[in-house]
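Structure ticket #2291
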Amino acid sequence: MHTEHDWITTPLTADLLRGALDVERTEHGLLPHRLPARARAQNTNPQLAMAEAQPSGVRLAFRTAATAVELDTLRTKRDYTGFPSRPDGLYDLLVDGVPAGQAAGTGGNVLTVDLATWEGGVTHGPVGTVRFTGLPARDKDVEIWLPHNETTELVALRTDAPVVPAPDRGRRVWLHHGSSISHGSDAASPTAVWPAIAALRGGVELTNLGFGGSAMLDPFTARAMRDTSADLISVKMGINIVNADAMRLRAFGPAVHGFLDTIRDGHPDTPLLLVSPIHCAIHEDTPGPTAPDGEEIGKGRLVFAAMGDPAETPTGKLTLTVIREELSRIVRQRAADDPNLHYLDGLDLYGPKDAAALPLPDHVHPDAATHRHIGDRFHELAFTKGGPFAEEG
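Resolution: structure written out below.
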């Protein structure tokens, strides 16, 4: 029987990670990034900087006979002034692809944000430890999925048997880009984010470039996707453009073409799925921007409202309805020369009837049950027979 004195410390290196595009050595350890250094250098937006450093879809993947695993991390969680502290981020353990445990983060830093000004301050805390015991005493593939919504610096990995990087099992790699909905806002845990649900059901390796508030057709994100190895690619776009009132129709269409052109520079024949926004009642026919509802904040609830004027839609302001029409048109146009380009209407993932049964609690983001619904629906529409990601044969 192993004791506390039998721990083996394995150096944390990039070959133990999946789902990250880059790693940074910090004073504490290893910080996974979901955008490469070149892209980060071109970004000036603090929201994206925070989002890409939150490791949604990033997991440690190794092979070992260990029955116990300890992981030291320094997390940074986010809270909002005047609201209850957000739940601690969770770590999901998979053994040979099967859920085998879950643990909450401890210690770490807290970034507190004032929703009135979007300014924040950090309270520093200690390194924390998550521990998994009772693993089967045999050689096995182990994955530890990191919290999707907390910046996580990896400090130390200890096991009671040697560790080697997980071997390549020949699974296809799915590269996905989207908004906070893809990032995992309000999902129950890292493997309960909808792209993770779809990936695990589809038997593929996920690289999730879902960035909260930051699916803005940034050229540096397109270049990162161009340069990332992938067998399947999807881009879910629209909601953040409306949220930020970032573009008019005149700019949106060419920006979509440019984003897709850049991806195609590196992946000319890869199945590429363009996904339009899911149903969001406040923005179906009302442009952005989006802002917290002041009356609801006064009641201690974070709920969003549309601040735009529907009368401005004919002048080019964007609604979700307009965006779906434009994305569908663009795919029809391009597909004449690109048979591997496909379109998925977001309303087929979550439409008005789904919203009646599974309403968005803050009017924008799905809850845990809705992530499950969207993930299952995406798997059905994309990965099963007849879908653009279905395996041949």
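Closing remark: The CA atoms of residues 114 and 361 lie 20 Å apart.
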